Amino acid sequence: MYNTGSIDTVARALVDLLGFFGSPQRVDLLLKEADVEIDRALVPLLVAIATRGTLSVAALADQVGRDSTTVSRQLAKLAQLGLVAKGAGESDRRIRMVTLSPAGEGLARSVAAARQRLLARALAAWSEDDLADLGRLNAKFVESLAHAAQAGSEAKRG
Closest Cα partner for 145 from 1, 10, 28, 51? Predict the structure, then answer.
């Protein structure tokens, strides 16, 4: 069993990290660095689709922590801008799928490059070993969270 103080430290750091990256000022900074003009509320959707590939609306909503109705409205805006393409699922035509258009891919690449530049500046004083450890531990953390969530879902159904 872990020391609850250590778990609290991780939880506080996670809340701080999510707050930092989710703040409107940080998203605006990212968009400015990317030289992109788009509603900041649409950025998490673009990033999620760029990272995960084609997604159902429900999976995208889960990924960005928003309800499906909100995500559907935001996807309509992205479609009007020509940044996403929507279609029906292959196995179930009722499921709405979304993918980036070529223009959306270009915008997502610009945002990713800007994010990389901002992170490189922020982490410039870190050693390669520290960066590797951070990446490894973050990946392990996400995997553990996903496993715990899956186990919790199965326990509820069981």
Answer: 10
